[in-house]
Design brief:
Layout: E1 5-10, H1 14-24, E2 30-33, E3 50-51, H2 56-60, H3 67-77, H4 84-103, E4 110-111, E5 125-127, H5 133-146, E6 150-153, E7 158-163, E8 169-174, E9 180-188, H6 197-203, E10 211-212, H7 221-229, E11 233-234, E12 239-246, H8 255-258, E13 262-264, H9 278-286, E14 293-297, H10 299-308, H11 310-317, E15 322-324, H12 327-334, H13 338-354, E16 372-384, E17 387-388, E18 395-397, E19 403-409, H14 429-446
Parallel strand pairs: 1-2, 1-9, 2-6, 9-19, 10-16
Antiparallel strand pairs: 3-5, 4-5, 7-8, 8-9, 11-17, 12-16, 13-14, 14-16, 15-16, 18-19
């Protein structure tokens, strides 16, 4: 008896949409289930940026890169805590995913060449023109809806997977109704466990001090289902944080820091090396008074961000970014002594000329001069990086090393490549895993006989 659908995708974020499109590309019937009213998942909260190597877009700009170099950069950041083959598999396939997004899905992509993002030795960050995840989701949703063999149903969660106890799923049960739907293959792309406070406190105590910048529905369904399947679970203490959620509730691009911004606490003092990366730096903010900080930069940085980032313009319009004529005004906004703040900025400015490394290990500075621009920021848990162990084909791996026959995982449901904790996260690798594992899951699930 034929199943209701050849393939069912659980989760309607970037990974889910890519999985559905890649699976349907072969002519298979696909059902995508999203438990919330909205399609997009974590991807809509990103800047739509992901690393890819050896792409034709790099070549067109004369950028020489290779999957091996990309792998080496990522492993250097995570301290070689993730197997080489796992990272290299994503690096090797990243080119195919980037070009498929353009050629088959119609997504415009460019290579960011304004600076090399933290952790990368080359220009390999690819993104939509406006650098928003919303652009990516819009394109993917339009593509999925244009294909006659993908059915998308919102506000339908899954209560359990129906399986034989040996890694083969025959169907699933819809939450609430108890309705069963049969399938030839299942792709799990649910949104991690950041909204499950018990899981966060158990696996990621550092992140329990941070607000969660994600959906309240991301409660670890994939972990629960994986344990029932007997799947291996990796890096459950791993997460990506962001250091700069503004008072307007929006993200401030970390490019402000990479272009020279300073971050101070409520005393007007710097406390760590800002350019170590936004995920790693977040823990430093949680150790400051009231777990808040202030980002300070000059007019040049402000105007460049206004020109290039729609979300930055929105943050400015909402009052999340303010300007000040002098140190006294800025100190009043922060609530610190003007002398403390003046000394902090004076010392940082002194490093811009002598090119020396400061006591925190930072070696890049630009002049911070009036008018000053500043934003009050707090750290946030952005998304969890632990999850189901998957193979090169995105198939879920069971305890003992065998693979599920017809269960795949991508996005936050699959274990990422940051390694333990938050320090190993490199810009865009969350979306790299979502898109690449999603593409692999869609292709390989559709090839099942």
């Amino acid at each position: 008896m034929s199943p209701d659908f050849d393939i069912i995708v659980i989760g309607g974020g970037g990974a889910g949409l890519v999985s559905a499109i890649a699976a349907a590309q072969s002519g298979k019937s696909v059902l995508l289930l999203e438990k919330t009213p909205d399609i997009g998942g974590h991807t809509v909260n990103t800047q739509g940026m992901f690393p890819a190597s050896y792409t034709r877009f790099q070549k067109a700009l004369g950028i020489k890169d290779s999957p091996e170099k990309m792998t080496a950069d990522i492993l250097n950041e995570n301290g070689n805590s993730v197997p080489y083959d796992v990272v290299n598999n994503l690096s090797l396939n990243s080119r195919h995913v980037a070009e498929w997004l353009v050629d088959f899905c119609g997504q415009e992509l460019g290579v960011a060449t304004d600076f090399k993002y933290h952790g990368y030795s080359n220009y390999r960050i690819h993104s939509p023109p406006g650098r928003t995840g919303k652009e990516l989701i819009t394109t993917l949703l339009e593509k999925a809806e244009s294909m006659g063999n993908i059915e998308i149903i919102r506000e339908h969660g899954v209560s359990k997977l129906i399986h034989n106890g040996r890694g083969q799923v025959s169907g699933l049960e819809i939450s609430g109704s108890g309705e069963n739907i049969t399938t030839g293959a299942t792709i799990i792309t649910t949104g991690g466990y950041g909204a499950n406070r018990d899981f966060v406190e158990k696996y990621m105590p550092d992140a329990s001090k941070m607000m969660y910048f994600g959906s309240s529905e991301h409660r670890g369904d994939s972990i629960i289902w994986g344990e029932a399947l007997g799947a291996e679970l990796d890096y459950l203490d791993s997460y990506q944080a962001h250091s700069a959620v503004s008072s307007a509730g929006t993200l401030i691009t970390w490019e402000t820091v990479m272009k020279g911004a300073l971050i101070v606490n409520s005393l007007g003092e710097r406390f760590a090396n800002e350019i170590t990366g936004y995920s790693r730096f977040a823990k430093s903010i949680t150790n400051q008074p009231d777990s808040i900080a202030y980002e300070i930069y000059n007019r040049e940085i402000h105007e460049e961000m206004l020109q290039r980032y729609p979300e930055y313009r929105e943050t400015h319009l909402l009052g999340g970014i303010k300007s000040f004529h002098d140190i006294t005004e800025l100190a009043s906004f922060i609530g610190c002594k003007p002398g403390n703040l003046s000394s902090t900025i004076y010392i940082a400015n002194s490093y811009k000329d002598n090119m020396k490394t400061d006591k925190f290990g930072r070696n890049f500075f630009v002049p911070i001069e009036a008018p000053y621009y500043a934003a009050k920021i707090i750290p946030a848990l952005f998304h969890t990086q632990g999850g189901l162990r998957v193979g090169k084909d995105a198939r879920v791996i069971l305890k003992g090393g065998s693979s599920c026959r017809n269960v795949f995982a991508a996005g936050d449901a699959a274990a990422g490549i940051s390694g333990p904790g938050s320090d190993g996260y490199v810009s865009g690798t969350g979306l790299l895993c979502a898109l690449t594992y999603g593409w692999l899951a869609g292709k390989n699930s559709s090839a099942l006989k």
